[in-house]
Each structure stands twice: as C-alpha cells, then as structure tokens.
Design goal:
The complex is a heterotrimer of chains A (about 500), B (about 325) and C (about 325). With about 500 residues, chain A is α/β, with parallel strands linked by helices. Chain A contains 17 helices and 20 strands. The chains are: A alpha/beta (about 500), B mainly alpha (about 325), C mainly alpha (about 325).
Chain lengths: ~500, ~325, ~325
C-alpha cells in the first residue's frame, strides 16, 4: 500500500501511509486506539475507498472497491467485532459468500459441509461441529469460526484485527501455532494488536502508526522490547505519576463482597474495599472482574453470596437502587452505554441528578439557572476543555467525554464509583489527568473500583490490585508489587497452573 | 436444544390452533362442513399469499406495511386493464408486474438510500391506497364474470384454482429460502446486515429483491381477490396487513430478522384463516367482528411472546 | 453565550477553544420552518385566497384535531415507539361522550372527562402490551386499532349506528371563536404549549429525550425506561380521547368511519416536523409547524380544486418525500 490517505469529514484518519507486506511473513500493525490501524485494513478489505494513494498486489496496481473485490483478490480479514451470524450454522457462516451452488443458485450443502469440516480440522478445531447454530457456541469458538471463514477461501493475505481480545491464553497459543503454520505455507499475515508480548512471540516485522502516520517500521528480531514499548506509548512508563503516596487514612469498610456467585462469571468472589481507596481489579478476559462490577451495580442477579454496604447486608440491587445507595457505574463502551451523543454537555452531566434542581418529586419545573451554575462548577473542577456547556458532547475528545461522565456521578455525590476501562480510547495526556482526578476523589473519601486489563497503568495510580482467575479473587497486591508478579497471577500462577 | 425450542413454539401454536378449531366446530355446526372448509381456503387466499411474501421481508429484517394497500391498488389496476380490453391473464400479469416494480422502488429506498423500512412501507400503505381511491373516485369497479370464473374454478370438485396458487407460492418460497443462495443471503442479512456486507454478500440486490417479491405477492393477492369478488375497489384488503403480520409472527418469525420458516408460517395462516372464518360464521356484525378479532389477535400475540420468553428462559441457565 | 473554563491551577486564564460550534443546531431544525415559508409564499402566489388571515384561521381549525394527537404522538415517537390506534381511540371517546351526553346520563363535563379517561386507559393497555408483554408497537397498536374500533362501533350500534350531538356546550364550543380563531384551534395551541413546556422544563421531558436517544445509558442512570415509554402511550391515548371529542364537536355527528386514518395523518405531521421515527431526535414545536404545514398543503389542494380523493395519496407521497430527503441530508452531514 503506497502513500495511502484517508480523509473523513473533519478528520484525517490516514496521512500518506506506506505499508508493505511480504509473502511468508507475519507483520504486526501497532498503534494506539484511533491511530488508524483498523482504517488502513478496512481500505485493504474494500470497505473504504482511500481519498488518495494506491494499493499494489504482486506489483500490480489494483482497486478494491468493495468486500467482494477483496475476496476475489484473496484478501481475507478477521474483524475485531465478531461478525458471525448467530442465526446460521457453522457451515453456513464459514461458507458465507462462497457457497457451492449450481448456476441457478441452488445450494449444494454437502459440498459446503465437507469444506467446512476440512478447514476446521486443519485448524485443529475438532470440538466444533459443522451443523451447530453459532448462537450456541462460546465466544472463543465463534472467533474460531470467524477465522475458519477467512481461511476457507485460501487467501494470500490474511488480516487479523485484535483476534486475541476474546481468547483465553490457551486459545491464543493455539491461534499462534496456526498462524505460524500458515505463514510457512507462504501466506502474508497482518496482525493488528496493541499487546507487545504477542508481537515479540509471533511477528517478523512491525509497523507503528500514530495519529494516522507511519512512525517507523522495524524488524522485530532486531529490536529490543523496551524500544518497542517506548515507541508505542510515546514515553517511558516508569515514574511521573501524580500519585499521592498517602491514602486518605480511613479504613472504614465501604463494600464487602462475600462468596458472590453470578451467572456471568463470578464463582464465589470475596472482596472488600474501604472508603478513600482506589482498587484495581484485573484478570484475563472472562475471569470474572466485569461480572463483579455488574453485580455490584445490580445489573445481574446474585445467585448466592452477600454484598454488604457499610456493613449492612443488601438485598438484590438494581441500577436505580444502586444509584440511590451511592454507587455509580461507568461502562466500557461510552458511546453505546453512557453518552447521549447529540445532547449537550450539560444534559449529559445533570441527567441522573435532575431532582436536585427541581422539587416535589419532579413536578416542579427545573431551575435552569441552578442547573447551569452547578454544571459549570463541576466541570471546572475537572479541567474540561470545551467552548460551552451547551456544546454537543460528541464533539469532545475521548478524554474530555470521560471527565464529563465522571462529573455526572460526582454531582450525585456517589461514594463508590465502578469504572470499566476508564482510559479506553483516551489519549495518554488525558489519561494522566484522569488518574490525577481519581486520586483526588480518593483523598476526598470516595472509593473507586477500576476494572482494567492494563496492569502497568493500574500500578501507577491505584492503592491495591486484585487479580481474578476463573471467577474467584486469587491474589491481592499493593502498589509496591511488580508488574511481573501481577501478570503471573493473572495467568493463574496463584493456582499453581 | 434448538429442537426443543422449536418444539415448544410449534407445539404451542398447534395446540392453540387445535383448540380454536374445536371451539368453533362446537359453537357452530356448519364449521366443519366441506363447503365451509373450502370457503375458508378461498376467502383467506389473500392472507396466505401475502403472508408468504411478508415472511421473506421479515426474515431479511424489514417490514412491509404497504401490502394491503398495494393489493387494493393491484385489484384496481387489474380491473382497469381488463376493462380497457386487455386479456385477463395479461391484465393480471401486468398488475403483478406493476406491484413488483413498486416493491422494487420501496426496496431501493430502504436499502440503497437507507430510509427506515417502517416509514417507507407506512408511506406506501397510505399513498398506494390513496392512489387506488383517486383512480376509482372512491367507487368499486365491477369486473366481468368471466374473470371470476377463471379464478375460482374448482378442479376435481375440491381443489380450486386458488388453492393451487397458494400451494405453489408456498412451495416456491420454501424452496427459495431453504435451498438457494438467495434464501441463505436473506437469512444472513436479517441476522446481521453489517456482517453480511463484510462477507461480500450482495446486500443491496437481495434487499431490493425481497421488497420486489413482497410487492409481487401483494399484487398477486390483490388481483386474485378482485377476480374472486368480481369487483375491485379502494376499500379492499383493509385488514390484510394485520392478518399477514399475525400469521407470520405466530409462525415464529422475529421482527428483528434472521428467523422464520414457511412451514411454521403455514400454521399461522391457518390460525388466522380459522379465526376469520369462525367469526363470520358466528354471524356477528362488523363491529363485533372487529372487537373480537382485535382481542383474539392481542391475546395470541401475548401468548406467543410469553411462550418465546419461557423457551428462552429454559435454554439459558 | 460562551463560558470558558478556568484552568484549575492558574487562576483565571481561559482555556483554548476547541471548536467554533456552540449550538447544537442542525439542518433539521431549519428545514420545517423553511419549507413552511417557501410553500406559504408559493401557495399564496398561485392561489388568491390562500394567504388571507381568514384562510389561515380556517387551516388552524381544520388541523386542530390532528395537532392534538400529533402532539402526543411526538412523545411516543421520541422514545422510539409508535401508536397506530389513535384514530380508533378518538372514535371510542367520541362514542362514549356522545352517548353519555345525548342520553343525558351525566353532565357534559363529566362525560368529556370519562371519555378522555377511556382514551388514557386504552393508552395504558398499549403501554402494557408494548413494554410489559414486549410486543412490537406496530403490531400491538394495529391490534388495538381493530379491537377499539370494534368496541366503539359496538357502542354506536346501541345508538342505531350514529349519534347526533344536540345543541349544547360542545356544539357551542365548536362554533365559537376567540379573537377570530376557532376555539378548537386554541385547544390545539394550548396542548402544544403545555407539551413544549413539559419537554423543556420538566424532568419528565429530559427523561424522554434520554430514553429516546440511548435507552441503555438512560437505564444506567437510574431511569425506569419501560415505565417512561409506557407513559407516553397513556398520554397519547388521553390526547386522542380529547381529539375525539373535538372531532365530534366539529362534525356534529358520531358515525362509524369517524377518525379513520387519523393516526397516519398525525404521524405525517410528526415526521414533517422533524422527529425521526427511530426516536431521540425531534422537537415538539416542529410537530406544531408540521401540523400547520400539512394543513396548508391540504387546504391548498382544496382551494385549487384537487379532488378530495387525492388527499390520501398526496399525504403518503409527502411522507415518503420528506423521510427520504431528511435521510439523505442526515447522511451527507455526517453520521
């Protein structure tokens, strides 16, 4: 791909990107969220047309105008968001778009089934039966079906966009074996990731994108780890965090979870945290940390176990009750679950707290002046940058959006904030500001529960880190622990695995 | 496990339908006569044909609320063509083709331009009937009895022309849905349109085809109704869309798309047909028919949703 | 009015502005008033009687009933639902009120109240069907449409299929005018005023927008989404009840076809006013303008002698046209 540019209205997603792939190599495409990796690949897959630039395949300039074209040219892409169809069977998914049929369009099911079986077994996925409905498969199995779908067409180029996001360590290893085998057969593989470990274990070359530009392209075997790390983060990890070493000093328990079991991943969790502390909960995907967060906010039923709030045992919560109690929840996907995109900052901020500006249980009209001044006051504490509180929130950067959402719960005086991946989609500078803000909240006596997979980031600003594995809390560390120890526990070493 | 879910849904429908049948045959002894049952098929032929067209649209994730109005327009078109000297079969074909094109236009608006399917078909529901009203000045057009005979002739004393057409339609759509690439793509688009597009499926073409198909079936239904009654007017097929929707939904199709089968829709059609026929046999005036029908429909829908929820609850620990 | 946020540490040094855009105005907000003005000018130019004050007062009277319903329908559509049964509900309320009044069973005021209550009850039924039972609103309200029309006609049957409203409060009301504007139209304007006030100054209104725009996020903020959505059906039901009475007063006779297709006209008005059928976006003032616009179009057609039979077709084409244009514009401006 030569000098590819991609412009979206108001945003230059890709700026003169040069990228090349050799056959028989695994080439990592690195960069922060929003750097342009997915966009570049979508161009290759025919989903977008570049504003400028060209693509050459085997020396020949080609135009890939739609996904069908891409498939014809033997480019296969496995997307980050699973795109398997739950209502169809495995065979139907794998052969989607390449079904065997007569000229009139009549399906040849046997042919499809045979092809699927052979692909699945060549990938070592013996547990998946071709006639099962995909909606009955686990997340990892669905990912495998997706990969099978890409392979069945005998592609020359295979693109994988964050494939290990929903895979366990074991499944990831298996995937890597498969990819290496394919590489040795001559395939060119592009592997998008933001996990360093995968790059060094699996990839031959790596290209780094930042803000739509190519920063550098290196040979992985020739490059030391710390250089790669520095490149991705843009700075050194170590020191400059605005951590106050002294915590609030209060050790009053605010939340105690005992033997909690839920249907979505908690298997007897025991957890306590105190007022004025920031607690980071981490673990492999599916280990149960998100299940705990959801249960605390009352989004899922508590099958057994107890949760105590300030030493009082609670009855099953729902979001309304949780909010009344003083618990707040900020889910991972802002756009889908927290933001009212075209509404103003003010609207987004005051929504759960409107009763503060009204009276008689909402029968009185809202006191607009009071609302406005409260909003301004709250935002100025958070250093949000925006032209006015009436600006539509979708115009703000990720970091600023997150700050507004945090303010939403501060206005409500929430005592416990449960945040899922709060710095996801937030640039590095804003991340540090959010850390600072959270620490200030802690010293004010509030408690924060952070669910995150970025252990090194957690270490820079939380008081304690809990590691979950298989639905149980298996280890707890304080901020003096090393990342290595914690990662080991994440992998299950505490269980002796 | 999937089998169990289906059994629950199908079982529920069969039971309710059987109960229904039983009740009606008890209440009115004329229900189970040969003459009546044959009438039942004829009078509800339009529902059957429209339902099968609607099924395809619903599986693809869309909705076509305009079916009744397009059927009425088709009848009016047919009558107009016939009155102006066209051969009856040709007139029917022309009317169906007209509705096919209207469907294609609606499909283009939905899939190419991207306008919401409810709005497009709702608008169609309004303007198509409006057009029929305008053309006929609000009156009905009487059709020569020759055409009527062609439509309602009975072979072997039992099977009317209409029955054959219904059967053929069902078989055709069943074949399309289960045995062709097109059908597979319809399910795929209904399941996850984005994923279908990423897989390189011709979403646009299939989407337009689906609406064109439902348009054609509406046209067929309307033309047959006009032929059967011997008259075409702007007030025909008023309840068609509700009947078809009920049949399709009771037949297990989800409005969100990706689910549905001809065999189950067939059961749904039988339910609607039985209800319509039973109510008219009982001799109620229009007002009561409306009332009872509305209540029955709401009840049946609630039960269906309940059954689905129970089934789903069982499959999720 | 701009508010600059102060940097926490450095006192009163204003931050840098990120973008120029302050307001959240979009093309959508201008479209309806613009079309109104353009068509208004065009119509007046091509039909001599159109632009007169008298004619406009007539237009207001003609669309009053539609407007009342459209006001409630806006709420329903803002939260992503739809109610196809309002025409039948109007008939029901008209039948109930007319029966009670003509047989002098209860005083007129009580009859009106009972009729409106009946509308609200049907609305509650719709709300339960859609939110508690989980039936798709299109289908659920189609079912109610049929059942309620049947019920209303049954009531009419007991009155030999039609009730004529005698001289009385309602008939006087229907004929009266205040500053020249028909009283019925004033009811419509009052309804809209209340609606606007509620949407912008009350918590309920904020919740409506929240639920319409992002029900998941609204739920996470502690809003009872199902209850809120259900309540919109109750409101539109009550308003349909009110509309039914106004309609009966206007026409003077309650007959079986009363209110037929009213729901579609109301939906047209809402869409013309800029509310999206998927919810979350839309202004209730827009619906008022949309109603007037619709009235203008239909009135113009009548003045120009375009037969009444064409009105339905034109209505349908208008919906199609507006929806298509709106969608194209929205796509271009970048979603």
């Amino acid at each position: 791909m030569v000098k590819v540019c991609m412009e979206f209205p108001g945003v230059t997603a890709l700026d003169n990107v040069d990228f090349d792939l050799r056959s028989g190599e695994i080439h990592a495409l690195l960069g922060q969220n929003g750097a342009g990796k997915s966009t570049l690949m979508k161009i290759l897959a025919g989903e977008y047309s570049p504003t400028e630039g060209k693509i050459e395949l085997n020396g020949e300039v080609v135009v890939i105008s739609n996904p069908r074209e891409a498939r014809r040219r033997q480019i296969a892409i496995v997307h980050q968001e699973l795109s398997v169809l739950g209502n169809l069977t495995v065979t139907e998914n794998v052969c989607l778009g390449s079904e065997a049929s007569t000229r009139l369009g009549v399906l040849n099911r046997e042919n499809d089934r045979e092809r699927t079986k052979s692909v699945l077994s060549s990938l070592g996925m013996h547990s998946i039966k071709p006639d099962t409905r995909v909606s009955e498969l686990s997340l990892a199995e669905r990912q495998m079906v997706e990969i099978a779908k890409a392979i069945v067409l005998d592609p020359e180029i295979l693109v994988l966009d964050e494939p290990t996001a929903s895979l366990s360590e074991l499944d990831s290893e298996r995937l890597f074996e498969i990819l290496k085998r394919l590489r040795n057969l001559g395939l060119g593989i592009i592997f998008i990731t933001h996990r360093l470990r995968e790059v060094s274990k699996l990839c031959d070359r790596a290209t780094l994108l930042r803000n739509g530009k190519v920063v550098t392209s290196v040979d992985v075997s020739q490059t030391p780890q710390d250089v790669l790390i520095k490149l991705i983060l843009g700075k050194d990890l170590s020191d400059d965090s605005a951590r106050s070493i002294a915590t609030s000093g209060s050790t009053s328990q605010i939340l105690e979870v005992e033997n909690l079991v839920t249907s979505d991943g908690a298997n007897g969790v025991n957890l306590t945290f105190n007022a004025g502390e920031i607690y980071g909960l981490t673990g492999l995907l599916g280990a149960g940390q998100n299940a705990v967060a959801r249960a605390i906010f009352g989004l899922t039923p508590w099958i057994s176990g107890t949760i105590k709030w300030k030493n009082n045992p609670l009855k099953q919560l729902n979001p309304r009750a949780a909010i009344k109690l003083g618990i707040a929840f900020l889910p991972e996907d802002r756009r889908r679950a927290s933001l009212f995109a075209s509404r103003s900052i003010r609207d987004n901020l005051t929504l759960p707290s409107l009763n503060l500006f009204s009276g008689w249980f909402g029968v009185k009209p809202i006191n607009l002046k009071l609302e406005k001044s409260s909003t301004v006051e709250n935002l100025s504490h958070m250093d949000v940058v925006a032209p006015s509180i009436e600006t539509s929130i979708r115009l703000l950067s990720g970091g600023n959006q997150q700050k507004v959402l945090l303010s939403r719960w501060l206005l409500r005086d929430s005592e416990l904030l449960v945040l899922q991946e709060p710095t996801h989609g937030v640039d590095v500078g804003a991340r540090r500001e959010i850390h600072k803000t959270l620490r200030n909240l802690a010293s004010d006596g509030r408690s924060v529960l952070i669910i995150s997979s970025e252990v090194s980031e957690l270490l820079s600003y939380v008081d304690r880190i809990g590691v979950m594995y298989s639905g149980k809390l298996v280890a707890e560390f304080d901020s003096n622990a090393s990342e290595a120890e914690i990662q080991a526990a994440v992998q299950g070493s505490a269980q002796g695995i | 496990m999937q089998g169990k879910l289906l059994l629950l849904e199908r079982g529920g429908l069969l039971i309710s339908f059987a109960t229904f049948f039983l009740i009606f045959s008890i209440i009115d002894s004329s229900f189970l006569t040969k003459a009546n049952l044959l009438d039942l098929i004829d009078q509800n032929a339009t529902v059957a044909i429209a339902s099968i067209g609607l099924l395809v649209v619903v599986i693809s994730g869309g909705l076509d609320l305009s079916m009744g109005s397009i059927a009425a327009l088709s009848g009016v078109a047919l009558a107009t063509f016939y009155k102006n000297g066209m051969n009856p079969l040709l007139a029917m074909a022309a009317a169906i083709f007209l509705c096919f094109m209207i469907g294609a236009i609606q499909g283009t608006l939905v899939h190419s331009v991207g306008v919401n399917t409810v709005i497009v078909s709702l608008a169609g529901m309004i303007w198509a009937r409006g057009l029929a009203t305008a053309i006929t000045n609000g009156n009905s057009i009487i059709i020569n009895s020759n055409l009527t005979r062609v439509v309602t002739v009975r072979h072997i004393g039992y099977i009317s022309q209409l029955t054959i057409i219904i059967l053929l339609s069902f078989l055709l759509v069943d074949f399309l849905l289960r045995k062709t690439k097109f059908g597979r793509y319809v399910f795929a688009i209904g399941g996850n349109q984005q994923a279908a597009r990423q897989a390189g499926l011709p979403v646009l073409r299939v989407g337009i085809a689906v609406f064109a198909l439902s348009g054609a079936f509406s046209g067929l239904a309307g033309g047959l109704e006009a032929g059967r009654l011997g008259a075409a007017g702007p007030t025909q097929n008023l309840n068609l869309i509700l009947d078809a929707l009920v049949a399709v939904i009771l037949g297990g199709a989800r409005l969100s798309g990706g689910e549905g089968a001809v065999s189950r829709t067939f059961l749904g059609v039988i339910f609607v047909a039985t209800m319509n026929n039973g109510l008219s046999l009982l001799g109620f005036s229009d007002a009561y028919v409306y009332l009872y029908k509305g209540l029955i429909v709401l009840l049946a829908l609630s039960l269906e949703v309940l059954a689905r929820r129970l089934a789903r609850g069982k499959s999720q620990t | 009015m701009e508010i600059l946020f102060k940097d926490r540490d450095s006192g009163s040094v204003p931050r840098i502005l990120l973008t120029r855009k302050r307001q959240n105005l979009s093309f959508r907000d201008f479209a309806t008033p613009l079309v109104l003005i353009i068509l208004g000018i065009g119509f007046s130019a091509t039909a001599p009687n159109f632009g007169s004050y008298d004619n406009f007062k007539n237009i207001f009277g003609q669309v009053a009933v539609i407007g009342v319903i459209a006001c409630g329908m806006t709420l329903v559509m803002l939260v992503g639902g739809i109610d196809l049964s309002v025409g039948s509900v109007a008939l029901l309320s008209a039948s109930i009120a007319a029966t009670l009044i003509s047989h002098k069973i209860v005083p007129t005021f009580l009859a009106i109240l009972i009729a409106i209550l009946a509308g609200a009850l049907i609305g509650m039924l719709n709300g339960l069907l859609v939110e508690s039972a989980g039936i798709n609103p299109v289908i659920a309200t189609l079912g109610t449409l049929i059942a309620v029309r049947g019920l209303a006609q049954v009531i009419l049957l007991t009155n030999k299929s039609s009730i004529t409203l005698e001289e009385g409060f309602l008939m006087h009301f229907a004929d009266s005018r205040i500053i020249g504007i028909p009283a019925i139209a004033l009811v419509m304007f009052a309804t809209f005023l209340i609606g606007i006030f509620v949407l912008y100054r009350f918590i309920y209104g904020r919740y409506i927008y929240a639920v319409g725009m992002n029900p998941i996020a609204a739920g996470l903020c502690g809003i009872r989404v199902g209850l809120l959505r259900g309540s919109t059906y109750v409101i539109v039901g009550a308003l349909a009840g009110l509309a039914g009475i106004l309609l009966a007063a206007q026409v003077g006779v309650v007959t079986p076809p009363l209110g037929l297709n009213l729901e579609f006209v109301a939906i047209t008005a809402v869409i013309l006013g800029g509310t999206a059928i998927t919810g979350g976006i839309g202004r209730i003032e827009g619906t008022l303008l949309g109603t007037i616009l619709l009235g203008m179009i239909l009135n113009y057609m009548t003045i120009r002698g375009i037969a009444g039979e064409w009105q339905q077709a034109v209505t349908g084409f208008i919906i199609l046209l507006i929806a298509t244009l709106d969608h194209i514009v929205r796509r271009k401006s970048g979603a």
